[in-house]
Design goal:
With 195 residues, the chain is an all-alpha fold. The protein has six helices and no strands. The longest helix is centred in the middle third of the chain and has 29 residues. It is globular, with a radius of gyration of 22 Å.
């Protein structure tokens, strides 16, 4: 009877495959020509301005007494926020200027600059208004963004380390809108200069 020899585990990732995936990931997110070091830093920083608040929300979502539907909403909101923050890297990378190969009809075609600039500018305006202006004012006043009184279980009404943890996690969100504004203006200038 002949024995079967397994040379590798079926679930193991081969080192060559991992290196190829890593190289492809890095190549897709490298900045295009004409992107300054400061703009690169702004783009790579943007996802990290959202991450602490997402982690805080995820930890709070699995606290006792939170219904399943609200938990699902909090997880969805955290993932969506981080995904949207990550798209800021597209404002410096090739995939923000040319449609990727995996998009069937559009692959390899140049993305019209205004198709990127308009949603990015709109997002930057909303984020700056909400997180940089309204959120701090509402926290100082002790109200919600709508102007209503805060509920008794609001994290900003906590004391000690709980309040400090909340503010440390949510303070970086105030940079999200301004960073997106800087990236959008740099993207628009770079694309306009290439025409």
């Amino acid at each position: 009877m002949q024995q079967l020899h397994h040379t590798e585990e079926p679930t193991a990732i081969r080192p060559g495959r991992y290196r190829r995936l890593r190289a492809a990931w890095q190549a897709a997110h490298l900045p295009v020509a004409g992107v300054s070091r400061r703009i690169q830093l702004a783009a790579y920083t943007m996802p990290y301005t959202v991450l602490p608040a997402g982690i805080w929300r995820l930890l709070a979502a699995f606290d006792r007494g939170i219904p399943l539907g609200e938990r699902a909403y909090i997880v969805f909101l955290s993932v969506l926020s981080e995904t949207l923050a990550f798209t800021g890297i597209g404002l410096i990378a090739r995939w923000g200027e040319v449609f990727p190969r995996w998009i069937p009809v559009l692959r390899g075609r140049r993305i019209p600059p205004m198709a990127v600039v308009v949603p990015a500018a709109l997002g930057a305006t909303i984020l700056t208004l909400v997180f940089t202006l309204l959120f701090p004012v509402s926290e100082i006043r002790g109200t919600t963004l709508q102007g209503n009184a805060l509920s008794a279980d609001s994290p900003s009404l906590a004391t000690g380390w709980e309040a400090a943890w909340y503010y440390v996690c949510y303070a970086p969100l105030s940079l999200w809108g301004p960073l997106l504004t800087v990236l959008t203006v740099a993207y628009w200038r770079r694309r306009r200069a290439r025409r």
